[in-house]
Specification:
By secondary structure, this protein is α/β, with parallel strands linked by helices. The chain has 17 helices and eleven strands. A five-stranded parallel sheet has the order 7-8-9-10-11. It has a four-stranded antiparallel sheet with strand order 2-3-4-5, with helices on both faces. The longest helix has 24 residues. The protein is globular.
């Protein structure tokens, strides 16, 4: 049985047989691909995805470019030219149409500005770039500012450029999925500032609910576009937990956050799409409600969760991606990495429903020989472990 990479991923969600388990390794800094190929001794013309045996290609609306391409000059310059983002090098920030700032020059992505966070110094910088409907919010009380806040129009010409370009596939027959990273809760805390978001959700939850409602509207409007373009898997990203507990009590999650997930996931399900969630941390308090809301897949399953228990309790409901402990990879020998990778694949891969992957994007501190050990072990065990 010979399959394309796209078929192999989709069959995990369809619960159909595959010839072997798909896999995925992503680096936190997308500007390092050329350097990594050189250090690994690869042909410069060889796509890194081919060496890594990757199966998924995430495509992005232009509004999302600052998150993942903040350090890739040509992409940010293109986005600036189109009027979707504004880079200020002295402030080390790319500002976007949501009124959010993402730091440049960082390995991972970090938000360092929110239009409703009340940072007067950064407001002075942002005022040079942001449209008037956002700068008028600077001096408003938070309740009034949230009521007046407008999310960008997802149908602005140029925003769907990559979704339309990639709808018929990409080189290497990868499964193309429109990214939903930094979804509604995360954008909300970036716009309000994390401390203020957590203060308001406890003391004045209407502020948070209203902001998330507006951010969910943006995502719901895009849902039909994705389905009409032929995408089968809908992706959403919101980190809901730390590695020791969720950020929210079950009641707070159910009352304030879950309604927005239900609305968005329900829209995807009506359109016949599978729902794939990125959410880091210990997710036990939230998974049952999210599954009831329509969740079909979860990444990047982290080992702070009991992997065997996750597979046992939710393996019939969810496709898992992740599990290989990225936090340990910088400190292990290649042989230790091979053993860790094999054990993870055996736990999560039994019976299928698994995409072999680290528990997070690989940071720059992971030695190249350990990257190679993950790739080699994934290839060795991707068929045996099913």
């Amino acid at each position: 049985m010979s399959m394309t990479k796209a078929e192999r991923v989709l069959n995990q969600f369809l619960r159909k047989p595959v010839d072997y388990l798909p896999s995925q390794i992503t680096f936190s800094d997308r500007s390092r691909d050329g350097e990594i190929k050189q250090l690994l001794g690869l042909d410069p013309d060889m796509p890194l995805d081919d060496y890594l045996e990757n199966h998924i290609h995430f495509t992005f609306v232009t509004d999302d470019w600052p998150l993942f391409f903040r350090n890739v000059d040509p992409v940010i310059e293109d986005g600036q030219g189109k009027g979707f983002m504004w880079r200020d090098k002295p402030a080390r920030t790319v500002f976007d149409r949501f009124g959010m700032g993402t730091m440049i020059g960082e390995d991972g992505f970090f938000t360092n500005y929110g239009v409703l966070a009340g940072d007067k110094e950064m407001n002075k910088v942002a005022a040079k770039y942001l449209p008037d409907h956002l700068t008028k919010l600077f001096d408003m009380p938070v309740e009034a500012a949230v009521e007046a806040y407008e999310a960008p129009d997802p149908f602005t010409p140029g925003n769907l450029e990559w979704l339309e370009r990639d709808k018929d596939g990409v080189a290497g027959d990868l499964c193309v999925i429109p990214s939903g990273y930094f979804g509604t809760y995360e954008r909300g805390y970036a716009i309000l500032g994390f401390q203020q978001f957590m203060t308001e959700i406890a003391g004045n939850p209407k502020v948070v609910y209203t902001l998330m409602e507006k951010l969910t509207d943006y995502r719901v409007k895009l849902a039909k576009v994705k389905a009409d373009l032929g995408y089968k898997i809908a992706h959403h990203g919101d980190d809901l937990a730390m590695q020791t507990a969720g950020f929210f009590s079950p009641k707070m999650f159910n009352d304030i956050l879950l309604p927005h997930f239900k609305r968005l996931f329900g829209e995807y399900k009506k359109l016949g799409m599978y729902v794939f969630l990125h959410s880091c941390g210990l997710m036990a308090d939230y998974l049952p409600q999210l599954i009831d809301a329509g969740l079909d897949g979860w990444e990047p399953v982290q080992p702070c969760n009991d992997l065997a228990k996750m597979k046992r309790e939710y393996g019939k409901d969810l496709v898992f991606m992740g599990g290989i402990d990225e936090q340990r990879l910088p400190f292990m020998t290649p042989d230790e990495v091979r053993e860790l990778t094999k054990e993870t694949i055996q736990i999560l891969g039994k019976g299928g429903g698994y995409i072999i992957a680290p528990s997070q994007e690989l940071m720059s501190d992971v030695p190249l020989e350990n990257i190679a050990a993950v790739v080699e072990t994934a290839i060795e065990w991707r068929e045996k472990a099913m």
